[in-house]
Amino acid sequence: MNIHSLWKVILAVLFVSLFLHSANSFARRRPPAGGRFAIVVDERLSALRAMPELSGPLMRRMGRGAFVAVKGEKRSRDGVIFYRVIVTNRTAGWVQRDALASPARSGDDARLLRLIRGSDDFDRIVRARIFLDNFTGSQLRPEVLLIYSQAAEDSAGHLSREAGRRLNEKEMEAGGAPLHSYFLNYSGLDRYNRQGITFVFDAREKRLRYDGEGWQELVHRYPRSPQAAEARKRLESSKR
């Protein structure tokens, strides 16, 4: 086989690998079939067990944001309600009901909102993002958007301080790239970007700021809500 043919084979293998990886990633994000859709919102309680008891054999620990299909429910001997859930085509088990929230179950949006309010820092952002992505028809969405945006704005402050400590000024000067690009490429921002939060760099103050996308959504989608009034104030202050 000549070099040209070898490269064709290598490129073909890489293409197939990338395609399969993308397909598998997409499949993992699709809710399993066979029951009512629900999401893991409290990973502290998300032990998947072989039987509906807190002493039941542990099968796996499900991560926050994981999708399941609820097939049924049963109360344990000590009064805890468990859901029978499908996790994948090959995996099913029992999980404590309090670990999950479902857009199809009345009151779960309010329960998730209470959990968001009781969460701190990044946990608050992640749970708010789960709400915004999945409870799209909830009347509580403006309040969650406000919490999400405020948490993002609060995060900009400590991320700025953190980046300022970790980014070496001499190294940045030697690297020659624009100052703002070092801050906006700071690795501490990665997990926030994955939650839909984007920051901008304030060159005058040399700090990161939340880009205000959540404020904008509040103003445009829920203009008459009490939360929109607060969003307008934040957007006005960011222009000064």
Describe the structure.
With 240 residues, the protein is of the alpha+beta class. It folds into 2 domains: 36-101, Roll (SH3 type barrels); 112-238. The chain is built from 9 helices and 9 strands. The protein has helices spanning 3-29, 108-117, 121-134, 141-166, 169-175, 179-184, 190-193, 213-221, 226-238; strands at residues 36-40, 47-49, 58-61, 67-75, 81-88, 91-96, 100-101, 199-202, 207-210. Strand 8 (199-202) and strand 9 form a beta hairpin. Helix 2 packs antiparallel against helix 3 (121-134) and helix 4 (141-166) packs antiparallel against helix 8 (213-221). The radius of gyration is 23 Å and the shape is globular.
Report the mean per-residue pLDDT as an integer. Answer: 89
Number of strands: 9
Q: List low-confidence stretches.
A: 6-28
What gap, in angstroms, lies between the N and C termini? 65 Å
Structural classification: alpha+beta
The residue fraction in helices comes out at 40-55%
Radius of gyration: 23 Å
- The run of helices and strands is HEEEEEEEHHHHHHEEHH
| Integer tally of domains | 2
The percentage of residues in β strands lies in 15-25%
Q: Which shape, going by the Cα principal axes?
A: globular
Largest sheet: 5 strands, antiparallel
Sheet with most strands: strand arrangement: 6-5-4-1-7
